[in-house]
């Protein structure tokens, strides 16, 4: 009898070892689990599509920094064109507007602007009687124009002296229109067409001006995410939040213009709320100086990507990482720090990115031996395996993948079943391969239960969400939904849960563990009776 009991105990202990050795758990996550997270997007880094009303009260609010416009002479019926995209003369001779005929606005005030060409030069005019060219590398008074606008998007352009620009019969722009033009068809009147816009932190702050922007952002930061949201996340099994921040948080009391301080207090609050609900925090450096991808969420002024071109920008980014690591390393709620969100593969080379990631890793390790250091995959034409081959750090490292069945023409016409097949064929196989790569853990740091399927039913969305969760649950670090709140319903995690479009399952680590317990206890009993 004693021998039988001894064998049963041995079998049980073996089973326990197997239970806790199978699969990977994330250090710091309660219950031997992986990350089940939600992004707090649009909170401390502004994205206008998430909450468009933030921009509602900006005067001339459709003419913000980075807005792309095309200008057509009403008399010549030709578009203004920067020859070769900039660096040369300006003509008014194009019938169809393309890249050379598209200009990015730099906003000085609600009626004063500078025009940047596709190649980066600025329109410039030395004074009365001179022609407009596209040869200035940086803007000053000669590159600053005063705009008058009517309700039909017709505009007049004048110099500081008051002289109006006109399209001459020679198809050039000259500062010599006599007198003051009306809104009829005359050489000093142009039709303005909007092509694209940006709505990020730069646009909001520069659009409102410092004082008004400070009031708008204070109200937003205090109300958009609150302690009640952490209660909601806790009740629905979310164990982590990924919190995007901008690089200016490192100088929160006096950030560089036009950025607005105050986000640090909100981040502190998030850590306190997270600790109260046993939720962990990932700090995600979402916006870097100069912009790492040209998108509004990187706080780009006009869509230009300059982060990688300046050692000063990279140094400022590392300073921000040091600030965040030193402040939060010992906080019980910190799980990890993501060094840079979505660097552009088209602009940021591995020769720049990998040394930056290595420096960032060492900075975090200076303050914490256990915090996870997260490296985001480059967006665009890049293979995440490139980061596994880079040997960036030795412990608690993670590669972040962003999975959307969107933003690519390939997905435009896929049916619901074809979208799901893509998940199995591409996402699942990639996660399996990376899990087996003997390197950093795998994190699906952004995904959403949305697609380009028109008129998808409730059941379609439930199936799409279920398959994504099944696949992303296998990622060795876990996943994070984008985003907690959004004007677009299916991007809104809270709306999706409350309306049953997204059905969260119990944590797979816990569920699989229970299954293994039952299975292996049965095995233990069989072994004991066999003897």
UniProtKB/TrEMBL annotation:
Domain Glycoside hydrolase family: 225-485
UniProt KW keywords: Glycosidase, Hydrolase, Signal
Signal peptide: 1-28
Ranges where the DUF7910 domain occurs: 60-195
Domain of life: Eukaryota
Keyword Hydrolase in annotation: yes
Similarity comment text for this entry: Belongs to the glycosyl hydrolase 5 (cellulase A) family.
Record protein name field: Probable glucan 1,3-beta-glucosidase A
